[in-house]
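dude i think i finally got it to work??
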Amino acid sequence: MKRLFLVAAALVFGGATFAQTTTPSSNTGTTRFGLKAGVNLPKYKFVDDDANTSYDTKTTTNFNLTGYADIPVSTYFSVQPGISLQGKGAKLSDDDDNNKIEDNILSIEVPVNLLVNLPAGPGHIYLGGGPYAGFNVSGQRKSTILGVTNEDDLKFGNSDNDDIKALDFGFNVLAGYQLSSGFNFGAGYGFGLTNLAPTSDSNTNNEINNRVWSFTVGYAF
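look at this
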């Protein structure tokens, strides 16, 4: 997992460095490139179609790291594509927290957001959202049952022997504030639309979706 993280981080930083050397072509404003990082609070939403019930797990704590371009398309609107590392997962436990299972997943994600930018004070407020495509590349499941702790690598795929699907598609909403200097901070929420439960078993009617709160601090160059 460490090797995958280093390779993915290099892609994010390398892409952002290359982007800074690119001459903007937009005639409605200057394209800016940036980096942002912060904390994720991910969880799963479970849906049992047979019992017609749904519930959310507890959140776990993870991270996010994103390189992006902000491309103006009009005075108040911009498109913001990017590539990011997203730490996802969830925590399930009993009432006494004695028996628990925790998933930690590293996903490479490609979001494309449409933002509205509203001037405010020494900067602007931004609001928006858009779709994302994610690829789960590594993960661990830590379980503590009756005082015995085990850690296993998660298997990604869609067969009977897999734990979670590798591909995840969804929708992000985000909001924040950016100073004219480029310093920015924001928050977002990710709605996973893909059923992450392997569906090779036709008798399985359960759905698992990602739900992720994100908080970031960044800088646009």
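The helical segments are 2-20.
im so relieved honestly
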